[in-house]
Structure formats: C-alpha cells, structure tokens
C-alpha cells in the first residue's frame, strides 16, 4: 500500500462521482423535455383519452422517442450510480487496509 495506490483510489472516486452527476443531469433534462412536450401536447388536444391510462398510452405513442430517451438516460444514471458505489467500496477497502497496517 503506497501513496500512489491511495491517490488512485480517490481519483477514481472523484471521476465516478463526476460521471454520476453528469448522468443524473442528463436524466433530469430528458424527463423535463418529456414533461414539457407532454404538457404542450395536452394543451393542444393531441393527447386525449377518457382516463389517465388512455392519455398515457396516447402520450407514449406520440412521444415514443422522448420516452426512450428518458429510459436510456435513467439506465445510464443507474449504471453510473453502480460504478460510483463500487468505486466508493474500493476507497473504503483501501482505508480499512491503511487502518490495519497502522495496527
């Protein structure tokens, strides 16, 4: 266990945290774009239906690509969160080894 190993672990954690933030922001933007377009289509009367489930089905039909974008962004966010969690576990492992070595 040396300074380089410790530094690398923290650098990887920093990179994973940044990637998670970016993925979260992309997911938020995708959801906002979908909701904005959905609201606009509701206002123009393009999305209609007797009940919420019918309106949701119509929205999914009209806004298919936006729904796919949201699903992809959310999947990427989950992947980035997993990567962050795994990297954080590695940092915790390095810290535990350091404590053990100090005895």
Annotate the secondary structure layout.
Blueprint lengths: L2 H42 L7 H11 L1 H39 L1
Helix pairs in contact: 1-3
Proper CATH architecture:
Orthogonal Bundle
Strand fraction band?
A: under 5%
Q: Kindly provide the name of the CATH class.
A: Mainly Alpha
Mean pLDDT over the residues? 97
Structural class, judged by helices and strands? mainly alpha
Spans of at least 5 consecutive residues with low confidence: none
The CATH topology turns out to be Helix Hairpins
Give the helix tally.
3
The portion of residues assigned to helices is over 70%
Termini separation? 14 Å
Question: Could you walk me through the main structural features you see in this protein, from its secondary elements to its overall organization?
Answer:
The protein is mainly alpha-helical and 103 residues long. The chain has one domain: Helix Hairpins. Helices cover 89% and strands 0% of the residues. The longest helix has 42 residues.
